[in-house]
Write a structure and sequence with these properties.
Layout lengths: L2 H9 L5 H16 L1 H9 L6 H4 L3 H6 L1 H39 L11 H4 L5 H9 L2 H22 L1 H5 L6 H29 L3 H24 L7 H30 L4 H25 L8 H23 L6 H7 L4
Helix pairs in contact: 1-2, 1-14, 2-11, 2-13, 3-11, 9-13, 9-14, 9-15, 11-13, 12-13, 12-15, 13-14
Subcellular location: Membrane
Organism: Branchiostoma belcheri (Amphioxus)
Main location: membrane
Length: 336
Amino acid sequence: MAAPPALSAAWFPHEQRTTATAIGITVGAILGAGSFIIGPLIVTQKPDNQTEHHNMTSAWEDSSWLSQGNSTNFSTAKSQIMLLMYVEFAWTALIFLLILAYFPDKPPSPPTLSASKNRLAFRSGVKQLLRNGRFWLVCVSYGILFGTLSSFGGLLDVNLSPHNVTQVEAGWVGFYSQIAGGASGIVVGRFSDMLGGHFKLTILVMTVGYIGSLLWLVLMLYHSIIPFSTVSVYVSNLLMGVFALGSEPLFFELGVEATYPIAEGVTTCVLTWVNNLFGLLLLLVVMVMPGGGTSSTRTADWMGWATLGCGAAVLPLMLVFRERYGRLAVDTGKRT
């Protein structure tokens, strides 16, 4: 996730940079959509309804529960999950070996003026990054939106199961959402390149759309305020993907612009780390909640509202953010 902005800075002119970053980030989302299909195809064993709503940790510790014939189901599921992980490892290892075999560091000549200039040393860059308030507005906004969304989305089949939506059906919902989000990211990235900046306004508009889509889903799944339907599940998740993943490349590019001349790789690694941190925090809260566990309807409801609240928190953070495109100004000779 952290690599595309550094690659686009080294290889592409400024009028193509955001598009290149968007392709680098969203192609991962588009190809990652396959996991929603491959996962259910390999991991076919799923506990029955009684088992499904049993706390997984206590299940393994409760010998009487396992003696009721559920141990066979879990043993099969465990083997299938390990097979899935080995398949994913093999694919990742292959890509890694190809990169080792051939991956040029940079083109023969720098595509932009900023690409030819030295970046701050790692230690100096980190120190300056920690003191950059504008960067932390972008970083926290990105982290709370995408970190919580990734954790909430990762439990999509659990959240949909009370409505008799199968694991396979939930996989297709996630698949189409990822595909739509990836396509949206590329379109928004190209549009932003044509505008030559103005990332803040685009992020605000996309975030409002994301909040509306997630609110639709939460009110439908947990409160029946909006009637449940499979079509609504698909459409709301599709729109969430379009609005959320469509804005993701802009967060990376805005963070890099706010921290120039700090190396792009340093900035984007911190963005990615904070994203993972917020996703981890949401899952940790779920684990320690009274009556928690990801299969709890009460917990799923709380996760939905927490994810929605984190998305809403992005709006005030980005509203106080002051845009300044330091790297773009170097490349164009204009203050932006």
